[in-house]
Amino acid sequence: MKITALLFTVLFVAISCSSNDSDDKPVVSNYYGKWINVVDAKDIDNPYVFRESYKFNRGNTFTKTRIDRGVTTTASGTFEVSTNEIGTNLKLTYSTDSMLILNCSNSLIETLTITKAGLLDNDGRMCDAESTYEKTK
User: Fold this and answer.
1) pTM of the prediction?
2) Which residue of 36, 53, 96, 118 has the fewest CB atoms within a 10 Å radius of its CB?
3) What is the three-state SS of 20-35?
């Protein structure tokens, strides 16, 4: 009886400690390429809604582009990648100050998260700088 209880305990601990959350994690290498901001259909003809995109390159460099009323503005820099329970995180460091940097401070750093739904969210949403992006093919 003691052996059965011991085996049951060991089996219970082994099952409890094992984790199969690989389906929950986004593909980390899926961030390369171009991401375009999502605009609601109701806002598509609004002159105050701009088109914005990020392009992430394999050398860990990026370019952010905004087209607003026919005027194109770009900014660029480097990025680092990390992961956590929320998704894949991109820490962007801009080369120079730019109005394109969306954050809650005046730094050259912007942080983004690729959610488990596969969307790129700007973490500046905490201070009303909300933007969501979809990856283009």
Assistant:
1) 0.74
2) 96
3) CCHHHCCCHHHHCEEE
